[in-house]
Design goal:
The chain is 78% helix and 0% strand. With 134 residues, it is mostly helical.
Amino acid sequence: MSFPDSSQVSGEDRINGAVVLLAGLSGGLGVALSAMAAHLPGGDLLSNAANMLLFHAPAFLALAALRATGPRGVLAVATLALAVGLALFAGDLTSRVMLGDRLFSMAAPTGGSLMILGWAGILLAGAVRMVRRA
């Protein structure tokens, strides 16, 4: 198996690769946190973090596949908001269990708000696509 020369890989391919990487990271961490939740005190918080990670893993795959179909700027911002929001939300819940303290004050609510904005961006991208197709 050979890999393309890095000079042959476009910026679009790199971005899609990064979004697919986010999907794999999100899914893998979600499974790991699910397993930890079954064995550690504070499992409810870990389970919530795992669920958020697992729910968003397929969303990242879909965003990578759909990048060329919608308004790219909107989908790029939505993807970034989801990724940062997910890291803050799941990271804060995990930090509470593993380190005994929050990442920082309001990390989880900020992360949750960013995820909501990310999903709103996806909604906007869909609406724009529907209007442009009509």
